[in-house]
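Hi Q.,

Before the meeting this afternoon, I wanted you to have the D-xylitol-5-phosphate prediction in hand. No need to reply - just skim if you have a minute. The sequence and ligand are here:
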Amino acid sequence: MSRDIRITPSILNADFSDLSAEIQRISEVSDLVHLDIMDNLFVPNFTFDFATASKIVSQSTLPVDAHLMVNDADRIGPQYAEIGCASVTIHAEATQNIASTLKTLRSLGARAGLALKPGTEIAQYAQHIDLVDMFLIMTVEPGFGGQSFMNEMLPKISHMRKMIGDRPIWLQVDGGISVETIERATQAGADTFVAGSAVFGAQDPAAMVASLRALAVSVAD
Ligand code: DX5
Ligand code: ZN
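Predicted structure with the ligand bound:
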C-alpha cells in the first residue's frame, strides 16, 4: 500500500486582510491549513498574536496545523491545542520539557508535532518517538516564506523515515516545497507537505494543491 499523502498549505504568503477567504480557496483540496506562529524571538519575524490566531482557528473551514516558531513552546503549545488546532507542532529547540508537553498536546485532543530546524540532529529525539504524531523536518531556516528548498536535508528526511518505520507517524517537510521539489522530498520519505508561496503565489491555489498532490502520489512508495 502506498503512503498517504497530505498537503497542508501555509497561509504565510496569503492575503492577511481576508484569511478566511484565502483558506476557503484551498479548502476543498487540502488536508489541513498550516498556520505559522512566529514571536519575533525564536525567529526574526512576527505573524499573529494569540487573539488573532484564535480567530483564524475558529473561522477556518479546514482543520488547523499550527507550527509554533516561538520560545516557551511548553507554555504556548497547549494554548493552541485548547483553541482546537487539530495538530500542534512545537520546535525541539524551544522546549524545556519535551515529553511532558507532547503528552499534554495529546491529552488536549491535538496531534503532537515535533519540528527540527535544519541544524538540529535527529538522534537525541529518538527516545520520544512514541509521543510524537508528526515530525516536521524544516527544509529552510524557519522565519520566512519564499526561500529555496535545502537539498542537503534529503538525507535527514530519509533517516527520519527509517526511524519512523511502520509507526503511523506523519513526516512533514516545510520550506521551498513546489512542483520542482516535492517529488524529491517524497522520494526521501516525506508524506505531509507544507507549501506557502507555491500555493498562494499561484494564479489558482486550489489547482496548485492538486498538482502538488498528484506529483507526490506519483512517486510515493
Ligand atoms: C517558514 C514557515 C513556512 C513557510 C513556507 O518558516 O514555517 O511554513 O510558510 O513557505 P514556502 O512554502 O514559501 O517556503
Ligand atoms: Zn511552517
